[in-house]
Amino acid sequence: MEFKKALDVHHFQSRMSNFFIIILGEGVLQLVKDGPLVLGLNGSTGIMVWILLIYYEFSFLYFNRDGSRRFIPAATNKGRKTLTWVLWHIPLFSSILTFASSVMFIIRHQPDAPYNSPGGQAGEAQQIPHDDLPRYLYRAVWTCASSLGIIMLSMTALALLDKSLDEPGTLKVNNRYIRLSGRVVYIAVIVCVPATPHMDARLFLGIAAFMLLAVTVWEWNVGLDRGGALIEPMGLSHMMSRELTS
What is the pLDDT, as a whole number, of residue 94? Predict the structure, then answer.
């Protein structure tokens, strides 16, 4: 079997990135257009803030890759690496859709949620006996946890398929495996959180969002120029130091 690159590999890579944005946008659209957020502030607003935060962090981590400043994208390679890069997008996209469906189920079945969809979701909610609802919500939490773990695993694999060209000592942490270590911790922890009996869905999504925020801040900070301040690039730190000493 012979593997060849696409005729316009950069266009193909751009199309995959655009499709990723569309998949994320579908999840956000469910919350905004004819969804819970259109009703304004209510008892379910907090849980929707966590979900929006998770979607934003997904977009940052996907496009941040492994944090390298200079790299060769996996899509531009010839052979199995390019095919592997394409295949890893399948669990990534499918898990994002599964996560979006699970969180919508959780939102629509919160006790204080005033949401009634025009498509008959209210009638669907009444079909679930009240005594069985906690069991279904717990299953939805497990689905969210599994989806989050697969999403993070897929994005980590995609990031590692790129070839870093950064010179030693240019970033705060040049070892990209250390830069991505937070993702491994996230995967290991998030799939274990629902093991707590009677885990509340709101609490789970809050934990997932804050843990993902910690991973995002870590990767953003360790990918800055070496010599910079905690949250500043090296150039800004040197400029401020020069102004203070002059």
Answer: 96
